[in-house]
Amino acid sequence: MLETAAAILGYAGAAVIAGAYFGNQRGLLKSEDWRFPALNLAGSLGVLVSLIAEPNLPSVVIELFWAGISLYGLWRTRRGG
What are the Cα distances from residue 57, in Å, to 52, 60, 74? Predict the structure, then answer.
């Protein structure tokens, strides 16, 4: 049951990341908008949860970088630039 929930969070996280990127490419979501790094952070956390159930070190590493960069983006947008 927990593995299924973790997998669903992972798929949802991947969809959120892809959706944010697509929105950015379509010009609907600017990278300077706080929502862009927030969506990326939420997505990467969802994928990280799924990686607890099914560990894969390279994927964990990229998601940690993704989360860190997203936190930097949130900090930057909060500062105003």
Answer: 10, 5, 26
